[in-house]
């Protein structure tokens, strides 16, 4: 019993810690650029109008709150498969995989839940227990993978001095990777850098994956945030599907989330899809996924997945959602441009901002500069120099740009 008194204090979550410190600050000009959740130009969180309409319709039609399946509802699974792998009926390779029963999909507790489920699955069934993640990556990736029992190691990704992708070292570190290990790839809008690979660069990486027999695990938390159109952001998936159909890559997994692109954050709506080598394998994997999930949380929540089902089964709502998403991404890009325009380029080259995509600006500012921004200007963000663009709007962009210019001077 005494051992309960020996439990040490755990460090607070970095991003949530920023929100706490922000709350305490009495400066009326304070800005919170920590959390990666959308805010409108008034600094307020929103519900997508398409989502609100789907909820209105659910309120009228829903007659029960029964449990869904261990792996979610069948309609949700096929909607997700068709949406991601089949580009809504436009992708031949994806269609072949779906038609051939080579994709197993389970609804999960958003993107984090899907990462955890696949990490546990890999610990049970992948021959190698090592997972290579980009340096840097979303901090929770490492926590999820190591908690599940995988051994997380970095591969080179970003050059902090050049403020650019470090492609030469990226390929080198993957060439040096242990065969049959897992490699984590961000589908688009890499978190935190905002820098993605070009199709030509993906081609090189996919070639190394084949040579080293690496197992690709794709995380897609920001589908739609690169181009404004979710169907345009799945180039990596379309290409890897072709390679799977050609037999060059046997299989891979994909974690997906509707948190950002449908604004369903707290509804915890996402999925894990495992692309398999055969329908027989699919059957076994499906059964093992259920066996893994049942004692963990039994079944996923239903409200978010019903919203997704409602939107995808109504062409008008679907159109409206694509418009909502495009607007959200449009605002982020406008703000990114505005900030870039207002930054002083005499002492610092800010061109990397124009190449980054997604929810974040990865400034390249040092830890000292980030601390100065916080202490002198009440600008709160993670010390790695990442700004969540959502926190920037017409009322604070001048103040922010001026603060950055002062700190860089
Ligand atoms: N992957 C990445 C790269 C993310 O940035 C996030 C959210 N910050 C997630 C996964 C998971 O998000 P959620 O669990 O809210 O779907």
Write up this protein:
One of its GO terms (molecular function) is pyridoxal phosphate binding. This is Aspartate aminotransferase, mitochondrial. The longest helix is centred in the last third of the chain and has 28 residues, at 315-342. α2 packs across α11 (303-312) and α12 (315-342) crosses α15 (397-408). The protein has a 7-stranded mixed β-sheet. It is built from 15 helices and 13 strands. The chain has 409 residues and is α/β, with parallel strands linked by helices. 46% of the residues lie in helices and 14% in strands. The protein binds 4'-deoxy-4'-aminopyridoxal-5'-phosphate. 4'-deoxy-4'-aminopyridoxal-5'-phosphate is lined by residues 36, 110-112, 138, 191, 219, 221, 257, 259, 265, 270.
Explain briefly what this protein structure is:
With 409 residues, this protein is α/β, with parallel strands linked by helices.
**What is the averaged pLDDT score?**
96
Structural class category: alpha/beta
Strand content: 5-15%
SSE run: HEHHHEHEHEEEHEHEHEEHHHHEHEEH
- Compute the number of helices: 15
Bound molecules: 4'-deoxy-4'-aminopyridoxal-5'-phosphate
Beta strand count: 13
